[in-house]
Design goal:
The protein is an alpha/beta fold and 236 residues long. It has a single domain, classed as Vaccinia Virus protein VP39 (Rossmann fold, 3-Layer(aba) Sandwich). Helix content is 38%, strand content 24%. It contains eight helices and eight strands; from the N terminus they run ααβαβαβαβαβααβββ. An eight-stranded mixed β-sheet has the order 3-2-1-4-5-8-6-7. Strand 1, helix 3 and strand 2 form a beta-alpha-beta unit. The longest helix has 18 residues. It is globular, with a radius of gyration of 16 Å. It starts with 9 loop residues before the first helix and ends with a strand.
Length: 236
């Protein structure tokens, strides 16, 4: 790994690394990631037409989104600071036969090495787990080519998001382990849009992901009050 002052919360890395072996268990702790992955993938592919594109997946974890984008024909690089997670991603890639270039490096370090090298950068459910999300956004902007797209997903900071994503999802429905999220680290869409604009990114679209507890399914919607994805285009 490139030596740099990494923008990382060690306890967050340890938390997810401890569950690394369960990453590809579609009924395990990461079941929700598997369920919402098709929604994210479709949004990315619809926006950039992934086939033949050079794509970077920041905070790739065990590679769920990375592999699915590679299956669409993209040349995918996945980066994470959780070594155990990358080991799982590499092993699954070997088993599935889906080629992804996984690297144990921070996004800031990669940005200093490969500015404007990617057609598309994705960073899903990571910003709320790092000490300095602004630095992550700046690095993503540096890495994407002019005219390219950056996809950022996170959780809104409001009472509804707290009730649904922490009390509901973690403590009542058990959709993810207790303690997965820290409400204080949630990010309002207005904050995300401001930080992105300051990094030279223009907001093109924003979509919410909603959960229906009756049929236990997720869908994309216009409601960004809880879990949301923003699509940005590099304009400078």
């Amino acid at each position: 790994m490139t030596q740099t002052k990494d923008n990382v919360n060690p306890s967050e890395i340890e938390k997810f690394s401890a569950m690394a072996s369960q990453w590809w268990d579609t009924e395990g702790n990461f079941k929700t990631l598997h369920q919402i992955n098709p929604l994210r993938l479709n949004l990315v592919d619809k926006t950039v037409s992934l086939s033949g594109k050079d794509v970077l997946d920041v905070g790739c974890g065990g590679g769920i989104l990375s592999e699915s984008m590679a299956l669409k024909g993209a040349n995918v690089t996945g980066i994470d600071l959780g070594k155990e997670l990358l080991d799982v991603a590499d092993l699954h890639s070997l088993d599935s036969g889906v080629s992804v270039n996984y690297q144990h490096i921070s996004v800031e370090a990669l940005a200093s090495q490969k500015p404007e090298q990617f057609d598309c950068v994705t960073c899903m459910e990571m910003l709320e787990h790092v000490p300095d999300p602004v630095a992550i956004i700046n690095a993503c902007s540096t890495l994407v080519k002019p005219g390219g797209y950056v996809f950022l997903s996170t959780l809104n900071r409001n009472p509804k998001a707290y009730l649904l994503s922490i009390i509901g999802a973690e403590y009542i429905l058990g959709m993810m382990p207790k303690g997965t999220h820290d409400y204080a680290s949630f990010i309002k869409p207005s904050e995300l849009a401001l930080w992105a604009r300051q990094a030279g990114l223009t907001l093109e679209d924003s979509r919410g992901i909603e959960y229906n507890p009756f049929n236990k399914s997720f869908s994309m919607s216009d409601d960004i009050s809880v879990n949301y994805i923003c699509v940005f285009k590099k304009t400078v």
